[in-house]
Amino acid sequence: MKLERQFYQRNSVTVAKALLGCVLISDIVKLPSDERTAGIIVETEAYGGEKDPGSHAFKGETVRTKIMYGEPGKAYVYLIYGKHCLLNVVTEKTGTPGAVLIRALQPVKGFETMKRRRATDTLLELTNGPGKLTQALGITVMHNGLDMTEDTVWIEPFLSVDTIHTSSRIGVPDELPLRFFIENEFTSI
Questions:
Q1: Which of the chain's ends, N or C, has fewer CB atoms near its CB within 10 Å?
Q2: By the 8 A CB rule, do 2 and 25 touch?
Q3: What element of type H or E holds 21?
Q4: Which fold has domain 5-181?
Q5: 5 and 71 in contact (C-beta within 8 Å)?
Q6: What is the pTM of this model?
Q7: What residues does each domain of the chain span?
């Protein structure tokens, strides 16, 4: 059962924690041999909008960040370092920017497709980082704005998580404790 829009209509910290243990599923097919790919979300980061110096929306709405002000449950996908796509899901209510970065997954389905897309046979290297997981699941900037409550890429509840660890976000100098993860060998660090 897909997570519905109201799940995402909460603040980014609440959603970031609630996504841990859920399964991110991709039905993106680029080659005839591609299969459905999926992984358990084991690491997230919350981005709170205009009051959050680590957020793309910190300086207000731009062409790039317009999606963050839009409907919750949409994919915010962007390119970093000119080569890595990162997947966020928009949170908060429409008009209030917020997003959760999906940082790492534990692969559970579509191993051969993921291995081919990532050009590695090493299971631990498939989805243990935000750029790796998008490559493994076939997600690109073409999926920016995709409705994650529909049938291409979506999230479903899966595991109940008892213990959530917290740290500062990776690569963000503010040191706010907005990175959330579960004890798992597939986390990014």
A1: N
A2: no
A3: none
A4: 3-methyladenine DNA Glycosylase; Chain A (3.10.300)
A5: yes
A6: 0.95
A7: 5-181
